[in-house]
Amino acid sequence: MSPKIVDRNEKRKQIGFVALKHFAKYGFSASSMSRIANAAGVGKGTMYEYFSSKEELINFSLTLYVEQIEQKVASLIAGIPNPKTRLRNYLHEVIQAIKNDPYTMGVLLAVFKKLVSDSQDTEHTALLRGMFQSARTAIYNMIIEGVDKGIFRPEARQSAQSIAFNMIAFIDGLWLHALADPRAFDLTAQANDYLDRLFYSITPGPKQIDN
Amino acid sequence: MSPKIVDRNEKRKQIGFVALKHFAKYGFSASSMSRIANAAGVGKGTMYEYFSSKEELINFSLTLYVEQIEQKVASLIAGIPNPKTRLRNYLHEVIQAIKNDPYTMGVLLAVFKKLVSDSQDTEHTALLRGMFQSARTAIYNMIIEGVDKGIFRPEARQSAQSIAFNMIAFIDGLWLHALADPRAFDLTAQANDYLDRLFYSITPGPKQIDN
Amino acid sequence: MSPKIVDRNEKRKQIGFVALKHFAKYGFSASSMSRIANAAGVGKGTMYEYFSSKEELINFSLTLYVEQIEQKVASLIAGIPNPKTRLRNYLHEVIQAIKNDPYTMGVLLAVFKKLVSDSQDTEHTALLRGMFQSARTAIYNMIIEGVDKGIFRPEARQSAQSIAFNMIAFIDGLWLHALADPRAFDLTAQANDYLDRLFYSITPGPKQIDN
Amino acid sequence: MSPKIVDRNEKRKQIGFVALKHFAKYGFSASSMSRIANAAGVGKGTMYEYFSSKEELINFSLTLYVEQIEQKVASLIAGIPNPKTRLRNYLHEVIQAIKNDPYTMGVLLAVFKKLVSDSQDTEHTALLRGMFQSARTAIYNMIIEGVDKGIFRPEARQSAQSIAFNMIAFIDGLWLHALADPRAFDLTAQANDYLDRLFYSITPGPKQIDN
DNA sequence: AATGAATGAGTTTTCATTCAT
DNA sequence: TATGAATGAAAACTCATTCAT
């Protein structure tokens, strides 16, 4: 009754991750189905058994990507009580991830570009926004918690939203440059500088400098 | 010294700018020679009279782009004596440019992506690095000038390099997000927040806040 | 003599009829094995358990089709004693069939086309010819019977063959046009006109008009 | 200023006629662009210089076909004063055309089939209907002229429309069968039988038979 | 010098068929 | 026996590039 047993979901994921690597490296339009098939060790036709079109493969891969990122982010902030330390740790972990797997960041680049081309591409837009939103919320919560615990100034409560935006933009600018010119600068130092200035401006007490 | 040479260069530029628009909107691989020819009002074959290949057209267009950006940057910082004001003004002008012509920023996206694909593509890498370097130098100089004039703390001298890096990364993260989600946040406010925090940390005297 | 053999034939028929519908609607080459399998509620692989190839499925389906048509024809002419009335009735029934199930006529179209492509395709040719032959024979017999009974002129005996050919061609032209442009004309009226003229020319006695 | 000089319209026609042969022989879906290109002696890509898609090639070919047919029809009926003779001549010429170039009739088959598949395919439907309409009009006019000249009975005036429909259907049935089974019957004799019966029924005076 | 005609390699996608379970 | 997974050949179509005029 039952034919060759294959975990379709597992195989979709397997192909999806291979595709992700290609998208990261070459972008969407320059990645070809047959090369992905080849890299995934399946026939060209098999691709279409698992994804009805290239577009669907892209969507699925991105979902995979976002899931992966969000899980990583969630695990990074778990278990560290002090929100200040947690924030610093969070940034450092993100930077480690960038350093360890710079190509994966290339997917973001490809997504950003697709967003520019098809401005009404709502599926991808939603995906991206969701991802950024959850990152911002994580940062926002850390700021608020810091204020609640007296670690940050009360005024930081109003700026929390803005700080979160700011920080995300900074992080994304950082990997962008790291991608373009890996040896030009010290990511960790940059992140520390940024945080030092941030904490300096929201830590209570005159002239207190965090380290 | 025949006048033809001038014409030739002029036409190369003309085609180059048209190409730039396409690259910004669709990226390199999804922009086709014939569509660019069409938009530029020349024949398909003519493209190859002026550029030996698509690759060369890309290179030339990027040179054009970088030149344009650098000229703009240079003009922005000219004529404003106070380096603090000049810095704020500089950032605001950049943001205006992003707001007015978001597509042009798309070229950067395309370039970044190309850098990821061909990691040994030294021609483009050099171009990009040069551009960023000149932007950083401009910022660096403003910081140093501010220290010299007593507007910034002496300690800022050592951090000047790092601040410049930091700021460029922040700016690029900003347009990246602006491109992806134009209505999500207030670019100007974000820039001000960033500068406020920066100036707060490098302005002499206790609790002095710049505005 | 195992019961399996019956099942097998039954299932072949079941799949064959589903295939027939597809062939009628899309033609042979545009009908796909997997869509037929799907519509028949069996697996793709199962198709090849019952038919060694698409070609064989086509052959079998056509046999089924011809059988069906011939049974219908036989039942239409059964039980009506007057050959004139029987002839008129026959034509009307055929027209009813065309009106009720125009798609089935599409199979004929597909077969005709296949015959044009593979001119040496004797299997299908024989099938078709047999079908038309039996229809012609039925008409021929009615004419002869009419002559024998004095309902038609004796001269009709020599033309009987030709009349049969003529009538079949007319019928097939009729459904062809009905298929192409269903609302353009009144099939029943056309058939009556044709028969009136035919009967007028073969009915004995001056100016006698059949109705 | 001007490049390789090619009469685009001429080349479109040239390719169109080659395509027509393929469509006649294999139908639309089983005819491939590359095989047509090959037969036309041009490269695959060239096809798309002249036709934006297979669909457009089909449309163009059909236009060509209809034009051709209509011109032939027009020339056949020109210059013969007696409408009765003209009608007979017309039918004979059509039959000659069928005999001489049976494959071309295959195009009609393909069109009919396409009409069955995509019932809302208005472009082709319109083309077909127009062609049949003009054929019917030609026949209708001959009948009316015959009535006016006293060659046909006055009652034929009312039936003229119906006779035209009837005759077209008969003709199309005829070639359909001729295509399917070229040697089975004598097209000319069939046509004569049909016309004899028709003229018998609409010629004035008792028992008068046309020859 | 300028151009469009020509093209084949390469892209996405479909499909008849085979095969392991 | 029944099935769906797997696949390569082939289809429609795109595009950078060459070349004749």
Brief description of this entry?
The structure is a homotetramer of 211-residue chains. Chain A is mainly alpha-helical and 211 residues long.
Oligomer state equals homotetramer
Helix content range of the residues of chain A, please? over 70%
Task: Give start-end ranges of low-pLDDT stretches of chain A.
Answer: 207-211
Largest interface here, residues on each chain?
A-B, 50 and 50 residues
- Give the beta-strand count of chain A: 0
Percentage of β-strand residues of chain A:
under 5%
CATH class annotation of the domain at 64-202 in chain A: Mainly Alpha
Please, could you describe this protein's structure?
- Four copies of one chain form a homotetramer.
- With 211 residues, chain A is mainly alpha-helical.
- Chain A has a domain at 64-202: Tetracycline Repressor, domain 2.
- Helices cover 76% and strands 0% of the residues of chain A.
- Chain A is built from nine helices and no strands.
- Chain A has helices at 8-26, 33-40, 44-50, 54-77, 83-100, 102-117, 122-148, 156-180, 187-202.
- In chain A, helix 1 crosses helix 4.
- Chain A is elongated.
- The termini of chain A are far apart.
- Residues 207-211 of chain A have low confidence and may be disordered.
- Chains in contact: A-B, C-D.
- Chains C and D meet through helix 1, helix 6, helix 7, helix 8 and helix 9 of C and helix 1, helix 6, helix 7, helix 8 and helix 9 of D.
- The structure holds a DNA duplex (21 and 21 nucleotides).
Q: Main traits of this protein?
A:
homotetramer; 211 residues; mainly alpha; Tetracycline Repressor, domain 2; 76% helix; DNA-binding
